[in-house]
């Protein structure tokens, strides 16, 4: 894989009815996140460490 070939996969936390889904590519030097339905909205990018901290925070503050 190269920086131009992200391996996108649907987040395991996305809704089952595809109304609130994101895709994550974590096989590169940066973690990339995008809207599953509308790729024209762009991407959020983060370092692996920042993404790990964010997901840990989200898990610990789940409602």
Question: What topology does this entry show?
Answer:
Layout: E1 9-10, E2 22-25, E3 31-35, E4 43-46, H1 48-60
Antiparallel strand pairs: 1-2, 2-3, 3-4
Explained architecture:
This protein is α+β, with helices and mostly antiparallel strands. It has one domain (9-57). It has one helix at 48-60; strands at 9-10, 22-25, 31-35, 43-46. The longest helix is centred in the last third of the chain and has 13 residues, at 48-60. The chain is globular, with a radius of gyration of 12 Å. The model has no long low-confidence stretch (mean pLDDT 85).
Number of helices: 1
In total, how many domains does the architecture comprise? 1
Widest sheet, order of strands: 1-2-3-4
Class computed from helices, strands and strand pairing: alpha+beta
What number is the mean pLDDT?
85
Provide the descriptors you would attach to this structure in a database record.
63 residues; 4-stranded antiparallel β-sheet; 1 helix; 4 strands
Summarize the structure.
The protein has 63 residues and is an alpha+beta fold. The chain has one helix at 48-60, and strands at residues 9-10, 22-25, 31-35, 43-46.
């Amino acid at each position: 894989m190269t920086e131009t070939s992200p391996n996108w996969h649907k987040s395991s936390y996305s809704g089952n009815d595809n109304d609130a889904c994101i895709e994550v590519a974590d096989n590169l030097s940066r973690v990339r996140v995008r809207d599953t339905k509308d790729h024209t909205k762009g991407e959020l990018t983060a370092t692996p460490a920042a993404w790990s901290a964010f997901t840990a925070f989200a898990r610990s503050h789940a409602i």
